[in-house]
Amino acid sequence: MIKKAIFKIEGIHCTACVLNIDGQLEDTTGITEASTHYAKQETTVVFEKETITPQEICEIIKKLGYGASLISSN
């Protein structure tokens, strides 16, 4: 089943940060789409709930060096 989650991101300083987050997430098995909004400091992720959880996505973002917390998930 496809789900969508929104994460608050801390530490985005430039468009390279956005590309880094989106690229890493989209290369992760189970994630079909990632879109980071620089001004809002948020990332929206479309994922397969059978393959990956919002908590695991949050940990991936944190391993990249950014603060991350789940805002919402449906």
Strand and helix layout:
Blueprint: E1 2-10, H1 15-26, E2 31-37, E3 42-48, H2 54-63, E4 67-73
Antiparallel strand pairs: 1-3, 1-4, 2-3
Explain briefly what this protein structure is.
The chain has 74 residues and is an alpha+beta fold. Helices cover 30% and strands 41% of the residues.
| Head-to-tail CA distance between termini | 11 Å
Mean pLDDT: 97
Main CATH class? Alpha Beta
Q: Compute the number of structural domains.
A: 1
Largest sheet: 4 strands, antiparallel
**Low-pLDDT segments, ≥5 res:** none
- Helicity level: 25-40%
Order of neighbouring strands in the sheet with most strands: 2-3-1-4
Q: What do we call the CATH topology?
A: Alpha-Beta Plaits
Percent of residues in beta strands: 35-45%
Secondary-structure element string? EHEEHE
- Structural class, by secondary structure, is alpha+beta
Tally of alpha and pi helices: 2
Overall morphology? globular
CATH architecture: 2-Layer Sandwich
Radius of gyration: 11 Å
Task: Give the strand tally.
Answer: 4
